[in-house]
Amino acid sequence: QDSKSLDTYIQSTLSALYPPFEATAATVLWQLFNIVDKLYQGDGLRCLIDFLVPAKRALQCVQRETCAKYTGLIFYHEGWPLCIHEKVVIQLASLHRVRLKPGDFYLQIAPAGKQLAKLVLKCLSRCGQGMEEVAIPEAMYGGVFTAAFLEKLNCERENFPLKSCLLTTGSSVYRTPWKNIINPIFV
Please, is 15 exposed, middle or buried when counting C-beta atoms within 10 Å of its C-beta (0-12, 13-18, 19+)? Predict the structure, then answer.
């Protein structure tokens, strides 16, 4: 019974964040199960309390603040900016097996301790070797999905400017120009 209610809560949380859930479910559930296994040793309840609940708050903040400037408009992709139909924009888990190219990056909501989650941008390090993680302050959540956000980051990255955001669907990865992500389509 408890495991059934845990599953129901997890699915209702993810379906509210990543609609249409029938298109995103396989991707976000796989990523969450990966987190449960690797970070919480299979303890789904601990993952829910320590990661998913704070991640939900952070992702809702990103979505609310990003969408505020479009009040009164109906998004063609109802899950924007967290997803664009079946393609997940803000990942729940690291994309370990993806080989990043210069200019690639992805956004992830990551565990940040007990009952904390943070939004991060992951990319190749400035010297082109290894991975760099850039924590995004909560005060900037509303400005992430703008051209100015990436321009600010690129001021510090002369050798490898960021330009392509990685989106995922299942095991597929799509390199998408940032301008295609930050400009939502409306009905």
Answer: middle
